[in-house]
Amino acid sequence: MTEDKIKLTKENFRSGKDILTRATVGDVRIYVARTTRLVRRLSVNHHTSHLATAALGRAVTGALLLAATMKNNEGVGIKIAGDGPIGQVIAEAQGGTARGYVGNPDVFLPPKNGHFDVGGAVGTGTISVTRYTEGMKPFTGTASLVDGEIADDLTNYLWTSEQTPSSVALGVLVTPEGDVQAAGGWFIQCLPDCGEEVLDKLDRNVRQTPYVSSLIDMGFEPGRIIRMLGKGLPVDILDSYPLQFACNCSREKIEGVLRTLPEKELEAMAEDEVTEATCPYCNARYTFSREEIRSLVDKAEK
């Protein structure tokens, strides 16, 4: 095969749409997501550095994997609050849509052991997961960060806060030019009464499986990755659905946030002819005139 045909084949693999596949493998559930296009969209929206792209891509992919366990299209939010230079890492997912941002999109650290030093960028702190269930108050659980690399932090959170034995793998490949080459992850969730023999076999398979981002870069579909992880066990593919970026911000919601500000802050804004507010998730800009801000001040006074 010529070099040009090799490049063309790889481009075809990378042009595959983002997708999440769910399966039952023995006494566990396995979820695998390909999020290359979605993470690329986030990196363009937020003009993230290579390191910030890796951190944000992992967090958003993790949120999508957890959201896949919810019913009725309910949502999941992840907040990683460390003392590192990247600041907070925020990701939200509902069904097959997701959004997110980082506190410092320009963060840079030298590589660690040949990989992005996401743990160094995040630092020490906590990871919080909020589950939004229909007809109930949101539930938030929190755990200490293990290493800041996000995958191990989610695995630890699921065990310590939700008593769910799990394994999470997340990965993002970024080219020297900053383009997202491949992104994705898997989530292995043990079902009740899962036997030790199944766990041992899965553990052995996981150890023998290459990085998830490398598999996606090579063109492996999520279903094929599930079969690799479940080698030697009965695999039942349940379903697959597309993934995409989406933000539900609106002018009305931004105005609602402004209404929660202290009166003094609103009065300071009213001194300007125009106030511009930006959605942190998608960078959409909303403008409010002096009269509109003044109206919010009057309502606050009342």
Task: Write up this protein.
- The structure is a single chain.
- This protein is of the alpha+beta class.
- The longest helix is centred in the first third of the chain and has 18 residues, at 50-67.
- The chain is globular and about 70 Å long.
- The chain is built from eleven helices and 13 strands.
- A hairpin with a 2-residue loop joins β1 and β2 (28-34).
- Residues 1-15 have low confidence and may be disordered.
Main-sheet strand order equals 7-6-3-4-5-11
Structural class by sheet pairing and helices: alpha+beta
In angstroms, what is the radius of gyration?
21 Å
Average pLDDT for all residues:
90
How many helical elements?
11
Sheet with the most strands, sense and barrel status: 6 strands, mixed
For the termini, the CA-CA separation is 75 Å
- Low-pLDDT parts are 1-15
Sequence-ordered SSE layout with sheet pairings:
Elements lengths: L2 H12 L4 E7 L2 E7 L1 H11 L3 H18 L7 E8 L6 E6 L2 E6 L15 H5 L2 E8 L6 E6 L6 H10 L5 E9 L5 E11 L5 H13 L3 H6 L4 H8 L5 E8 L1 E2 L5 H9 L3 H7 L4 E5 L6 E5 H12 L1
Parallel strand pairs: 5-11
Antiparallel strand pairs: 1-2, 1-10, 2-9, 3-4, 3-6, 4-5, 6-7, 8-9, 12-13
